[in-house]
Amino acid sequence: RKLLEEGFNIELFIEGGRSRTGKLIMPKLGMLSILLDAYKNGACPDMVFVPIYIGYDRVLEEGSYLNEVEGGQKRPESFFQVIQARKFLKKRFGRIYIKFHEPISIKDRLEQNHTSISSLEQKEINTLCRYLAFRIINAINKVTVVTPHALTASAILNCSRKRFSRRHMLFHIETLMKHLHAQNALLADTLQVEPFRAVDQVLESYFQQKLVERIEPDKQSGSDEVFLTVDENKRTLLEYYKNNGIAFFIPAAYTAVSIIAKEAFQFSSPELYDDYNFLRDFFQNEFAYDVDHPPEYVIRKTLKAFIDDAILMPHPTLPDTYNVTSAGLRKLRFFAHFLKTYLDSYWVVLNYFRRYPANTHNPKKRIRKIQSRGALMYKRGEITLKEALSKVNYENAVNYFIAHDVKGSASTKKINYYDQNIQRFL
Predict the structure, then answer these.
(1) Using an 8 Å Cβ cutoff, are 250 and 263 in contact?
(2) Is there a contact between 51 and 105 (Cβ–Cβ < 8 Å)?
(3) Residue 34 CA to chain centroid, in angstroms?
(4) Cα 115 to chain center, whole Å?
(5) How many other CB atoms sit within 10 Å of the CB of residue 175?
(6) H or E segment at 54?
(7) pLDDT digits over 201-221, tens only?
(8) pLDDT digits (tens, 9 = 90+) for 384-394
């Protein structure tokens, strides 16, 4: 309150810590709640929040992030690490991007609703706090700069084959770029000027890091096609960079999965609402939803982007009805693939709850059991993505299921409900 009274700026990290997965963490509400209480008590005439995006082509902590996502413990920082860090200064890590969203005024927000902070009950202030937190996260997502590293990692990991051609990957790059333009997303300078050259430079970087391997063309076959393959053990690192720009593709992924689940080449937009809302709720711990627009608006906007890319064709006579083009089905599956990592992770956790009664293990042992279960399911081929073996995803899934009355093997009805939906979407 004293800082606000004196007119000082306050720096607030809305996520509460650094992301280990590459995407924004769901907002923490504690500090915002304290600020709103001070504002209600008259510390200042207005509070103005300026959401700031800070991003990187590459991060120095790749190795430690990868270790933590896969279940390792965070190493405490030490003077020895500072000495070791000298070797990183000799390497090139690309650019840092800083972008500012338009300021968000609490006073303006309340005046739009024809109210004031002093007239709000505590429950209403809590609602305002949650809205403000998600509004800030939404704003940071909107000014996120999509980098060549994020774009290339997305195209590589969403390729349906373990071995794929460079031409196949560039086709996906083009699809992603069209969708980003439809979203008015901010692109790195290199992507705006020479996107395919920027992608080639990132590929060279991935080759040097041994994340991706180049398979030279077979001269005997007479083909000059270059093929690529991904090191399975390095997919999680690529997932980190893919997640840097994933927020722009999640509405498209929800919509694509909802369309494919209909198992028909013709559908109406209202038919998508139930599945879209299920997915938005199901992944509430993973992706911040748009607090200013209802799902119906987001679906319509996404369908328009799909029409512009010839994925869908509006029906000539039936309103709000669309046909999937033959080429469009392949692109829908590509967009849907953004959710596969998370569907796999959540299915692993659901399998844990199916096997054990409630309160069998404490939280730490529960996560270890889930990690063991995930490794076994991956070995058996029940889940196919190495990046789905994520401790962070597991923890988010546990929190979701417990909050939705999945406590253990006795929760049969709920477990079957979620199992059927996960399998349907997979």
Answers:
(1) no
(2) no
(3) 28
(4) 35
(5) 18
(6) strand 52-56
(7) 999 999 998 999 998 877 666
(8) 999 999 999 99
> CB count, 10 Å around CB of 266?
13
Taking 90 as the threshold, does the pLDDT of residue 69 lie above it?
no
Tokens representing 101 are 């969203």
Please name the residue ranges forming H helices in 270-411: 273-282, 295-308, 326-336, 340-355, 363-380, 391-403
Burial of 139 (0-12, 13-18, 19+ CB in 10 A): buried
Compute the distance between CA of residue 415 and CA of residue 419 in angstroms, rounded to an integer.
6
- The structure tokens 């290339």 sit at 152
Residues in the chain: 426
**Checking phi first, is residue 357 left (phi over 0); if not, alpha (psi -120 to 50) or beta?**
beta
Token pair listed for 32: 């915002």
Contact between residue 150 and residue 241 where contact means Cβ atoms under 8 Å apart: yes
- Of 311, 372, 362, give the one whose Cα is nearest residue 178: 311
Q: Are 32 and 133 contacting, i.e. CB atoms less than 8 angstroms apart?
A: yes
Query: Exposed e or buried b for every residue in 302-335, given b needs 16+ CB within 10 A?
Result: bbebbbebebbeeeeeeeeebebbeebeebbebb
Q: Which two tokens stand for residue 340?
A: 């596969």
Q: What percent of the chain has pLDDT over 90?
A: 82
